[in-house]
Specification:
Layout lengths: L12 E2 L5 E2 L3 H33 L3 H17 L1 H11 L1 H21 L3 H15 L2 H13 L4 H25 L5 H22 L15 H38 L4 H29 L1 H21 L2 H25 L9 H53 L5 H4 L1
Antiparallel strand pairs: 1-2
């Protein structure tokens, strides 16, 4: 699908017959991608800052876990309120304010003098980041309508760009200046992006444009269809986070050194970023169900292969493992709009992201307890079984999708 050119208008446009058409699509997509990269970068930047804060404030590992949990917890729990806020203020204002709040949270962190100040700062930043996923993904979905799967894959890929860029940037900056000054620099960048969003993000109507109106089947099947999609998203996230918990231990058992573990994980993440980008477009051509079955089946096969293959073949397989691990998510995110009426898109995305974020936080703990009971190999094999458990859910989802998807 070819992306349309930028349009100079910032508001809803009309054609020669006076009918409403979609706002400037490319501008919605690319500004949503910028917001996604910034917010996801802020989210993962904490990992690079934890050692700095531990050394500066003398924090123990429990305190560091609290800091990470506060950011993730506020971001997850406020997704639904953020969707409701967008219905009142509009997507542009909510996304701009959320980006500004996320940036100011890190500015406050740069002024903090201890654990309490950091907790408050990260709660502020996490609250701001809660707006991005439901608002930006909902805006892309409503703008592109039934053709949103491909653009949503680009949107999801942009988050991985931010996760790679900002932690690397802050790690470099703290070697060149005090960490507080480094935080103020990345906070200033977020403030600039918030202003850009406020000025240039197109106003998007609550109802879908006439040419992308939701089909009747969406209204009749949204409840049960969304529940199945939600369950698939939760299990898919659990597989990904559970495997990443055990992968370093599997590699160490094969004789991989600690620096090489980092390289191996980088290979998985590179493949994951490619998977998010490619599988969204693949889903638009191959169908949601077919793509999910391929990626989840491939995930299970790659997990088993990583457990038993020799080291050289395992390292070669890791990028493909990343593609399979992350590929499903783009297809699922692109299907969320089919399960909701256009005016409830933000709420649907908020629910979906809340479930996947919560799964990402809880599933490593569950698999960790399982690993203590049956060992690393047994728990890793359980992640492969979880991937296969998605098969019947995906097949049950098929009747709830569009007619074109079922053919």
């Amino acid at each position: 699908m070819r992306l349309p050119d930028f349009s100079p208008s910032l508001t809803q446009q009309t054609d020669s017959a006076g009918r409403q058409v979609a706002p400037s699509r490319s501008r919605v997509l690319w500004l949503s991608c910028v917001a996604h990269a910034m917010h996801d970068g802020y989210t993962d930047m904490i990992y690079a800052l934890l050692p700095v804060w531990q050394a500066d404030f003398g924090l123990d590992f429990a305190a560091l876990a609290i800091l990470r949990g506060i950011y993730a917890g506020t971001m997850a729990t406020l997704q639904l309120p953020a969707g409701r806020l967008a219905q009142w203020l509009g997507s542009r204002a909510t996304l701009a304010l959320g980006t500004l709040l996320a940036a100011l949270g890190y500015a406050v962190a740069g002024m903090s003098g201890g654990l309490l100040g950091l907790c408050v700062a990260l709660a502020i930043s996490g609250s701001g980041s809660s707006t991005q996923h439901p608002i930006a993904s909902g805006a892309v979905s409503r703008t592109y309508g039934r053709n949103a799967r491909g653009p949503l894959s680009i949107y999801n890929f942009s988050g991985d760009v931010g996760k790679s860029a900002l932690p690397a940037a802050i790690s470099l900056l703290v070697t060149m200046m005090p960490w507080r000054h480094a935080l103020w620099m990345v906070s200033a960048l977020g403030c600039v992006i918030a202003v850009v969003i406020a000025l240039f993000f197109p106003s998007i109507p609550r109802a879908a444009p006439v040419d992308v109106e939701a089909p009747d089947h969406r209204r009749s099947t949204a409840g049960s269809g969304f529940s199945l999609l939600f369950a698939i998203g939760v299990l898919d996230t659990a597989v990904r986070m559970g495997l990443l918990t055990f992968l370093p231990f599997l590699l160490k058992a094969k004789g991989v050194s600690l620096p090489m573990v980092g390289t191996a994980l980088a290979l998985v993440f590179i493949g994951g970023a490619a998977g998010k980008f490619a599988c969204g477009w693949l889903g638009a051509r191959m169908g949601v169900i077919g793509t999910v079955l391929v990626t989840e089946g491939g995930t299970a096969a790659c997990i088993v292969a990583v457990m038993f293959l020799p080291l050289a073949l395992t390292m070669a397989l890791l990028p493909l493992l990343g593609v399979m691990l992350n590929g499903t998510s783009s297809v699922l995110y692109g299907t969320v709009p089919e399960m909701a009426a256009p005016e409830r898109t933000e709420r649907a995305f908020a629910l979906f992201y809340t479930g996947t974020i919560a799964s990402g936080a809880i599933s490593p703990v569950i698999y960790g307890f399982l690993g203590d009971r049956i060992g690393v190999h047994g728990a890793t094999f359980a992640t492969a079984l979880t991937a296969l458990a998605i098969f019947p859910l995906a097949l049950a989802l098929r009747p709830h999708l569009a007619v074109e998807e079922r053919r």
